[in-house]
Design goal:
There is one protein chain. By secondary structure, the chain is an all-alpha fold. The chain contains six helices and no strands. α2 runs antiparallel to α4 and α2 packs parallel to α5. The longest helix is centred in the middle third of the chain and has 27 residues. The protein is elongated. 16% of the residues are buried. The mean pLDDT is 90.
């Protein structure tokens, strides 16, 4: 039983800490941002831009907290940049799909 407890404590320290939970939360912001993008409604686009900006702010916050609290983990080092790229690429590909961004720009 102690071995299982030690494994859970290790998992909890590596993955279930505040900076990593914020990073995972940023991943969950991708669908609402994409849902709000609408070529015909500037209000929805503004809200989508605010959510995108909030995700960027959370990126800075989770990095700050990880360094300050000494919670820099292998999981965080992998997932944090992945969340950044997924958000940026999802939005760019979606903007190409709704014809608000030229495809060559995403390729570059």
């Amino acid at each position: 039983m102690k071995k299982r407890r030690r494994g859970y404590e290790s998992f909890k320290k590596e993955v279930l800490n505040l900076p990593n939970m914020i990073t995972i939360g940023r991943l969950f912001l991708i669908p609402p941002v994409l849902w709000l993008i609408d070529p015909t409604d500037p209000y929805r686009n503004f809200i989508a831009a605010l959510l995108f900006a909030a995700a960027s702010g959370l990126d800075a916050l989770d990095g700050y907290l990880a360094r300050k609290q000494g919670l820099v983990t292998v999981f965080g080092k992998f997932v944090d940049p992945l969340a950044d790229k997924l958000m940026a690429m999802a939005v760019m590909v979606y903007l190409v799909w709704v014809e608000l961004l030229p495809a060559w720009l995403v390729v570059v």
